[in-house]
């Protein structure tokens, strides 16, 4: 049991002061309760640097293992949603007459959403190559020498390709048309 202390000075109470306190408590009807034993102070860490090192190692371990833990709990759906690389179908070169009797030598690649779609679109390559002749013949050399004309031809080819595959799903999987060769001559 600890010794009662004076609230103002912090010194131990004298015997007379303790008796006065007990009498005052008895008159008020409050029983004296033994004071709580003082808590022992924790001894200071012997090596504070060691504690910091342990904390730093725990933090690094947590940071290193977090991706592994997250990866274990990821679902199959998240893996499927990861971005797929596009697929490409290269059509053979064509030489077609333009409106003004000049010729355009053209080779294009069709960009698709993934490799599987590229394989499917590849089955339509002869039909798509044939339709390129009709689309190209509607342009003149003067139009195709400008950037706007080349962009217009690419949009036209994209529309023709999307229209002439078997399903709407396959049509939406065709992203773009890229020129691989583009020569205007006589």
Residue fraction in strands: 15-25%
What form results from the Cα inertia axes?
rod-shaped
Largest sheet: 4 strands, antiparallel
E-strand count: 4
- The H/E string reads HHHEEEHHHHHE
Query: Mean pLDDT, rounded to whole units?
Result: 79
Low-confidence stretches: none
By secondary-structure content and strand pairing, the structural class works out as: alpha+beta
Helix content range: 40-55%
Question: What is the count of helical runs?
Answer: 8
What does this structure look like?
This protein is an alpha+beta fold and 186 residues long. The chain is built from 8 helices and 4 strands, in the order αααβββαααααβ. The chain has helices at 15-28, 48-73, 76-81, 115-122, 125-136, 141-144, 147-163, 168-172; strands at residues 87-90, 94-97, 103-112, 174-185. Strands 1, 2, 3 and 4 form a 4-stranded antiparallel β-sheet that branches. A hairpin with a 5-residue loop joins β2 and β3 (103-112). α5 (125-136) crosses α7.
In short:
By secondary structure, this protein is of the alpha+beta class. It is built from eight helices and four strands. The chain has helices at 15-28, 48-73, 76-81, 115-122, 125-136, 141-144, 147-163, 168-172, and strands spanning 87-90, 94-97, 103-112, 174-185.
Keywords:
186 residues, 16% strand, single chain, 4 strands, alpha+beta, 4-stranded antiparallel beta sheet
Detail the topology: elements first, then pairings:
Layout: H1 15-28, H2 48-73, H3 76-81, E1 87-90, E2 94-97, E3 103-112, H4 115-122, H5 125-136, H6 141-144, H7 147-163, H8 168-172, E4 174-185
Antiparallel strand pairs: 1-3, 2-3, 3-4
Helix pairs in contact: 5-7
């Amino acid at each position: 049991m600890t010794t009662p202390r004076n609230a103002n000075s912090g010194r131990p109470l004298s015997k007379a002061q303790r008796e006065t306190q007990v009498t005052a408590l008895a008159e008020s009807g409050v029983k004296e309760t033994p004071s709580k034993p003082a808590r022992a102070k924790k001894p200071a860490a012997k090596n504070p640097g060691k504690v910091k090192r342990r904390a730093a190692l725990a933090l690094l371990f947590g940071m290193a293992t977090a991706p592994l833990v997250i990866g274990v709990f990821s679902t199959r759906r998240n893996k499927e949603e990861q971005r797929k690389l596009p697929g490409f179908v290269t059509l053979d070169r064509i030489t077609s007459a333009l409106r003004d009797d000049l010729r355009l030598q053209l080779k294009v690649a069709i960009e698709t959403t993934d490799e599987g779609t590229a394989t499917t679109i590849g089955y339509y390559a002869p039909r798509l190559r044939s339709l390129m002749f009709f689309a190209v013949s509607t342009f003149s050399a003067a139009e195709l020498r400008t950037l706007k004309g080349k962009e217009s031809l690419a949009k036209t080819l994209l529309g023709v390709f999307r229209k002439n595959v078997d399903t709407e799903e396959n049509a939406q999987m065709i992203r773009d048309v890229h020129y691989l060769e583009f020569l205007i001559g006589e």
